[in-house]
Specification:
alpha+beta, globular, 6-stranded antiparallel sheet, single chain
């Protein structure tokens, strides 16, 4: 399964976007509530960071199932940044790191100043435990 969104920014700062796949959802009702919420919040925070800081006119969000894993990618073509020099008081990346850790996943941030950013998260798919 693959779900992709393209988001463009207009000159006045508003957002325009479209979904380029007919897949209605990538996360079925069989997944635990916390897992769905964590994936949603990771995507939300990565997209928020791209919108607030990248100065990119385009951001792509992609979710793909790869075997027993889900890969989430948020990519922009903006100004990039140095992940080691994020100012204190900014907790977005730390929140992403903590959620990925809770899901036993892997986080990769590819960026350098002036070259855009790619946030990649790979987490195992968790199935709901049968409560009885």
């Amino acid at each position: 399964m693959r779900l992709r969104f393209h988001i463009w920014f207009t000159n006045n700062g508003s957002v325009a976007g479209r979904r380029s796949s007919s897949i209605a959802t990538c996360i079925s009702s069989d997944y635990r509530r916390f897992w769905k919420n964590a994936i949603y919040r990771i995507a939300q925070e990565a997209l928020t960071n791209a919108c607030k800081h990248s100065k990119s006119k385009k951001v792509t969000v992609t979710m793909t199932q790869e075997g027993q894993d889900v890969r989430l990618e948020v990519q922009d073509w903006g100004i990039g940044f140095d992940p080691e020099s994020v100012e204190q008081g900014h907790f977005g990346l730390e929140g992403i790191r903590q959620r990925v850790r809770l899901l036993d996943g892997k986080l990769t941030i590819e960026t350098t100043p002036g070259s855009g950013t790619l946030v990649q998260v790979v987490v195992p798919i968790l199935e709901r435990q049968n409560d009885g």
